[in-house]
Amino acid sequence: MKKVLLLAAVAFGLNAFAQDAATNKLLKAEITPDAAAKEKIEDIILKRGGAVDNNYDYTDFLYQFYSSDMALGAITTTPDSSTVIVYSDGTPGYSFNHAVGALYDFNYYGWGDNEFNETDQVNIDSLYVIGGYDIFDGSNTDKIRFTIFKGANGFSSPFSGVQYNAGTWAALDPTVQPTAKTMAYAGSSSDGNAGGVSATNTTVIDYTLSTADSGVAVVGVEVPNGGLSMMGDELLGIFIEYLPGGASTSDTIDYSNNTGDINPFYFYYYREGNTSAPQGYFIQDYDSTSTNCSNFLFNTTRYAAWSGTSAWRNDQTSINMSYSHLISVTASGTSTIGIEDADLTSVSIFPNPSNGVVNVELDATTDATVTVVDVLGQVVYAANENFVAGERKVIDLSNNAKGMYILSVEGEGVNTVERITIK
């Protein structure tokens, strides 16, 4: 019987990295999407709906549960840190974001019925990213470059990346090395566009942008040669760059009047709406999966700003676990998870969201323990129940604060973990 362990979110786990200097630079290059962009992107997300039709996007999964608590944003990208941006308020600055990326673990319960077992073969068929593209100069030829690769699920190449000190994320156990990973990258001290991911056997696919991609664009490419084949116990790395045509060291992008020497492109993302008191939605699964859509590559004075014990910052991709870019893949294969779990008792938990009164129903007669924990891992409800097939057990949580909780039902032939929301 397959057992799923879901650890509760830790809201305070965000603080350590949120104060990182690189994150502050990332925030400087943000722009706020207009109402039309928000409406279009939300329509795309709702139609896509998670891991439906073999579509895998961590943002979809988060959006299913927390759409009312998520804010849409956009981060500008350029290939070189010397490219000057003039912001909407007229002040000059630099673009600090060279690229964005994602890691996918297909052996992740969040994919629901589309989860793969570690021994299953998975084929990556196509890649997608949602971004905003503005054309200031129609004579430039601009591209989006996808680089994908696979590797073992561990802290080794090509996912050695940034390894934070033990306890940085693993707030539930300060002695544990966090499982959140980034892809390994090798930059250049002389040119922000030089270098790249350190993985071998990468597949690189270029997409040439056109006037049809202006505004909110879903950029999609097919993986050549019949796709990328990998095993369910491997990780997939996705690295996405914007390569503007005719870039030089004196280019400008002026958002105050929508003019510039090069055409800007920005990758859309979702983040928690309340960053001053985060709920931990984006880090709640860090001990259960390596999946994330929050890898960034920063331009830090052409990757040579740091020295001494901080020199590792010059060549890195960084995690920001409160962001999730709209990066998705389509994958195909035969999952053996359903076969493995075929004998498990079915559990229904409804309504969800609720006002605090939740019904739990099993399709078998058995004893099981019902437990509810909050985002800090504190148990707010626990009871041993004798279930009769088709009979509802009422769990009253109406005296608890509004927000997200984890409800688990565990017993002989029963193993269910589900997020529930009290509104």
Topology record:
Layout: H1 15-18, H2 21-28, E1 30-31, H3 35-48, E2 55-56, H4 58-66, E3 70-77, E4 84-86, E5 92-94, E6 97-105, E7 121-133, E8 143-152, E9 185-186, E10 196-197, E11 203-208, E12 215-222, E13 228-231, E14 234-243, E15 252-254, E16 259-260, E17 265-272, E18 292-298, E19 317-319, E20 323-325, E21 327-332, H5 337-340, E22 347-350, E23 357-362, E24 366-373, E25 379-387, E26 392-396, E27 403-411, E28 414-422
Parallel strand pairs: 4-15
Antiparallel strand pairs: 1-3, 2-21, 3-17, 4-5, 6-14, 6-18, 7-12, 7-13, 7-17, 7-21, 8-11, 8-14, 9-10, 15-16, 17-20, 18-19, 22-23, 23-26, 24-25, 24-27, 27-28
Can you describe this structure?
With about 425 residues, the protein is mainly β. The chain folds into two domains: about 10-335, no CATH class; about 345-420, Immunoglobulin-like (Sandwich). It contains five helices and 28 strands. The strands form six sheets. Strands 1, 2, 3, 7, 12, 13, 17, 20 and 21 form a nine-stranded antiparallel β-sheet that branches. It is globular and about 70 Å long.
